[in-house]
Structure formats: C-alpha cells, structure tokens
Design brief:
Blueprint (H helix, E strand, L loop, with lengths): L2 H10 L3 E5 L8 H11 L3 E5 L5 E2 L2 E2 L13 E4 L3 H13 L4 E4 L6 H9 L3 E4 L4 H6 L3
Parallel strand pairs: 1-2, 1-5, 5-6, 6-7
Antiparallel strand pairs: 3-4
Helix pairs in contact: 3-4
Length: 134
Amino acid sequence: MTDVDAKITAFLDGTAFAVVGASEDRSKYGNKVLRVYQQNGLTVYPVNPKAKEIEGLACYPDFASLPEAVHGVSIVTPPAVTEKVVEQAHAAGIRHLWMQPGAESDRAIKRAEELGMEVLAGGPCILVKLRYRE
C-alpha cells in the first residue's frame, strides 16, 4: 500500500464528513463530490455560507454549525479559500483533509502539515476513489 493509499484509507475510515465548497449547481464539483458521498451511503454535511440546502441536505455556514463532529473534510474551493479552511478545520479539531484537484496550494498543504493534519492534495479525486472502491 502506498502512502497515498494509506491516507485515503484513513480518511474514508471516518463516519461523518463535510464538503466545503458544496454547490447547488449539479455541474460543479462541489455538488458532484457531495453526491458521491451520498451515493456511497456516507454521512455528509455540505458547508457553504450562501446556501440553505443542497441535494436535500441542510447546508451549514461553517464547521461550528455542524450537528456533529466530522472525521474528514473534502475541500472544493479556490486555493486562497482553502488556506482559510485549513485553519478553521484545525480549530474544529478535524485532522483529515482532502483538497480536491484545483483546491490545493503549497501554502495550504504546508500549513496543514505543520498543524499535524493528514492531507491528501494534488492527487486523486474522491470522485474516482469512491466510485470504484471495493
């Protein structure tokens, strides 16, 4: 098992997840990522301060508003926003981050690692991993 595979396994071992950058627009990756969690029967919470509901789920403005602690976060935001999300996730006690392709930045990755977080970035998309997991 590679280091990336081990990180993916550790990420998916959780029971509840959040998607930061979840979108109401079904053509956007923030929506597609949310739906793949749902399609796999995983507990997932959309996080977007501008939406009330996405794909039939209540949407939350931030981690503090979530109804339960989450194990991992899929991030689908511009890199500058991702850098802020890293700090917010750390403050909420979240250790597992999956920066989806295009959301990552060197600064966000470095900061998350400095904070002791497990980071997946610049690699596989969760859409591929959850669609084809065994």
